[in-house]
Each structure stands twice: as structure tokens, then as C-alpha cells.
Amino acid sequence: MSFVEDARWFTAAPPAAQAGVPGHVTLVGAGPGDPELLTLRAVKALRNARLVLYDHLVGKEVLQYVPADADLIYVGKEAAHHTLPQESIIDLMVRLARSGRSLVRLKGGDCFVFGRGGEEAIALAEQGIAFDIVPGITSAQGAGAYAGIPLTHRDHAGTLVFATGHLCGRDEVALDWAALARPRQTVVIYMGLSTLPIISRELQAHGLPADTPAALVEQTTLPGQRCISGTLGGLPELARAHGIRPPALIVIGHVVALQQHIARGLRAQFV
Description:
Shape: globular
Structural class: alpha/beta
Order of helices and strands: EEHEHEEEHEHEHEHEHEEHEH
CATH architecture of the largest domain: 3-Layer(aba) Sandwich
Strand order of the largest sheet: 1-4-3-7-2-8
Helix content: 25-40%
Number of strands: 13
Radius of gyration: 20 Å
């Protein structure tokens, strides 16, 4: 595989032989990390790829399905460090497709669950570029299965909510706190580790008891996965005490308390 260190290299004018023949884009969800959780369709797309734009949370094991002579461009975004801004990633995809190059846009989890896949699909559609979408197992599903936390349960959670904990403005997380604090539901918050004190405080202020079971799942479905369980009120201190680092999910709800029962029979995933 050819790793391209500087994605701007591909913004040059295309070869004349390719001009005027648009390429095709395949948006692929790589799943939560474990390469065995890739879908068959995702593996097929990777094996047929000639050019792949991949994100930060896509592991090397997943990239091994890409042919050795294909081009790989890293366009990952980490907290406070973006290789390319989202607008530039979209512009790069459009330029490449217009030049006649078909490509795979590879994202962690699922493209349409906090993966910016919606923005990219809209941009491609507006530019008249053909594309298809390969869904992936989202991180919340992987975390629940590998940690032994059922995201729904007839007796404890009839509603499942996914939310993002990104800051919006100065020390503000723009979420519907009253809706997230409703009883009998599971709340999974992506990208919320840095704002965990705000999340814990606001949910309690809107009626969710401090002793509500909650957990942090770090490195979901990977060999280094850790699941730290506690309560909503104590979660920020648990995160500090255990040195939890991104990527990590926050799971809140009474289903977390079921982990102690399920874990007794849960076979180790990493064999």
C-alpha cells in the first residue's frame, strides 16, 4: 500500500486520460475497531479499492484488506488536531472523483452515526458524483456487546438515545438535557470524555439521580478495551482516577447494572 503523507498532493490536475470520466465514491463504515466486525460488503469494497481516504479510528488491521498497490490517504481528525478540516476532505473527494478516480471513504463505526457521512453524501449528490454507502457496526453496539451491557432491556430501557458530547461555544454542550434525563432509557454519548463533568452535572440538574448506573468504555472492541462502571455522579472522578483516554463512550442507564450478571458468562472476545 502506498501511504500518502500529504493529502494536498492529490489536488493536482488529473491525467488527461481520466478527465471527464467521473469516479465513484464508496462511503464505508469500518465498525468499532475489531476487524472481524467488518461487514462482508465492507471487505469487498476494500479489496477492490484503488484509493482509500481513511480516518483516525480506522485500525491497521482493517487497512490490511486494501490491495498492496492501492493509495492510502490519512485524513483523520483528532481532538484539537485535524489533518484536514471537514470541508477540505469533502473538496478532496470531489476533486478526486471529478478527475476520474474511484475511491473508498473509510470511517470508523458507521458513516451516518456521528461520522459526518451525511455532509459528505449531500456534497457528492450536489456535485452529481455517484456513490454508495456501506453501513458499519457503530461504536455503541460494539461497546455494549463486548462489555456485556445490553443497550435495551424490557425491564430497564425501552428507549435508546445516541448523543454527542462535543462543546458548542464556550463551556457549553448543546443537548436536550431534559430529554436525556428521562427514566427507563439508555443514553450513549460519543466524544464526551472532555465534557464529562458538564454532562454529569446537567443530567443531575435535570432530574437524573446521581446514583444512576453509568460506565465508560475505552478502546471499544479492541484488545485494550476497558470498561469502568460506577454512577452518574461519580463518573468524572472515575475517569480521572483510571486515566481514561479517547476514544471512549459514556453509557448511562440502569442497563449498566446488568453487566455484573452478564459478565459472569461472557466469553473473552479476544481469542
